[in-house]
Amino acid sequence: MIQKQTISPSRGVKGDMTVPGDKSISHRSIMLGSLAEGVTEVHGFLHGEDNHATLGAFRAMGVLVDELPGGVLRIHGRGLHGLAEPGDVLDCGNSGTTIRLMTGLLSGQNFFSVLTGDRYLRKRPMKRVVGPLAAMGARIWGRGGGDLAPLAIQGGGLAPADYDSPIASAQVKSALLLAGLYAEGVTTVREPHLSRDHSERMLGYFGADVRPFPGGVSLVGHPRLTGREVHVPGDISSAAFFMVAALITPGSELLIRNVGVNPTRSGIIDILQEMGGSLQLLNERELSGEPVADILVKSSDLKGIEIGGSVVPRAIDEFPVVSVAAAFAEGTTIISDARELRVKETDRIAAMTSALGGLGARVEARDDGMVIHGGQALSGGTVSSRGDHRIAMSMAVAALRATGSVTIEDTGCTATSFPDFWELIERVGA
Ligand code: S3P
């Protein structure tokens, strides 16, 4: 599924839209719904390939999930100890969240399982979860000395973790919390900066005893989880493409409704506002324990800024599109403390430096970030997504303000997180 898309310069991004459900929250709703007792109904679930990989894994472990009209999922929970040993390898596709969170959860099961993924996922580091899970007592094998999938897991017999993570990673934190469900006593994870806290919130929402504290979170093992109704907000990481599209395209005004604005995810709003972007949060409310708002965006003259520190994990998936905003801003933008971008779906520092550079932007890659000298006109041309959904969508946004048409190669990957991206961007003005 390679495909390509050609985008021409836009005369304005306008309208009133919603984006599909949050990918992180959708993954967690299947996991906790399956481990809960009783029925969980998930409204606004993201029907993308990544979340379907998680869904397939739980079905393979005996969980019954009905698909109701409107894309609603009804999960018949099997309780903390109700999963069955899968009869085959579990394929996580392109999804880092699936493989890392499942490695934690499967470490708690008294059975054998094997996790694998596509050629991109099989290159991504797993030691970050395998190491601390092994310290809890899990037996995990993988290529590269346990760092690379396929991973084979013999779970059971876990002791609680008390772990100081060297990186701010919600996938590491969540893997340990999910394993901690199966350990007697209190599991504690500390991190250098707060990463997204959807796991903590949803575990609490389902009835677990979760105690966030400055610098970390603790969880009491062996809780009783109860099925709940979950309303998944729109994914701020998907909305981000449209925010930047409206900001950089003159004559734009766009209302994006029902977007999750959890403070551990809303770094993109802070970054774009600091760059001078007009973004207004309206109708702020709460949905299933998660903050939500409508976001009104108007075209703005952006300026370069310095980005680093605690905002980085709060915007970790948005740096490809931040680099697009920076290319159209006046002055220089410096992104640092973002070395994690090197090990995402692809090396996003290398991918964006080459894609934006290929259209004439002045961009330098740094070990832990990028320097973008804005204000240079971008030409038309052909660029590659390198199989990474967020690179493909970011370059579609850049194309709206280029001086000629841009062809993006290898765009099938957008189905992982945003299957109807191309229709939506066309509808609002591409
Ligand atoms: C995610 C955590 C982040 C993020 C990813 C989704 C999650 O990864 O980049 O897209 O759902 O927990 P890291 O934990 O590696 O930072």
UniProtKB/TrEMBL annotation:
Catalytic activity: 3-phosphoshikimate + phosphoenolpyruvate = 5-O-(1-carboxyvinyl)-3-phosphoshikimate + phosphate
Active site per UniProt: 317 (proton acceptor)
Residues binding 3-phosphoshikimate, per UniProt: 23-24, 28, 169, 171, 317, 344
Single GO biological process annotation from the record: amino acid biosynthetic process
Pathway entry: Metabolic intermediate biosynthesis; chorismate biosynthesis; chorismate from D-erythrose 4-phosphate and phosphoenolpyruvate: step 6/7
Binding site residues for phosphoenolpyruvate: 23, 96, 124, 171, 348, 390
Keyword Transferase attached: yes
Keywords attached to this entry: Amino-acid biosynthesis, Aromatic amino acid biosynthesis, Cytoplasm, Transferase
Record region (Disordered): 1-20
InterPro entries per the UniProt record, alphabetical: Enolpyruvate_Tfrase_dom (IPR001986), Enolpyruvate_Tfrase_sf (IPR036968), EPSP_synthase (IPR006264), EPSP_synthase_CS (IPR023193), RNA3'P_cycl/enolpyr_Trfase_a/b (IPR013792)
Enzyme Commission code: 2.5.1.19
A GO CC term assigned to this protein in UniProt: cytoplasm
Keyword Signal appears in the UniProt entry: no
Top EC class of this enzyme: transferase
Subcellular location, record wording: Cytoplasm
Purpose of the protein: Catalyzes the transfer of the enolpyruvyl moiety of phosphoenolpyruvate (PEP) to the 5-hydroxyl of shikimate-3-phosphate (S3P) to produce enolpyruvyl shikimate-3-phosphate and inorganic phosphate.
Subunit details: Monomer.
NCBIfam families per UniProt: aroA
Protein name in the entry: 3-phosphoshikimate 1-carboxyvinyltransferase
Organism field: Desulfuromonas soudanensis
Gene assigned in the entry: aroA
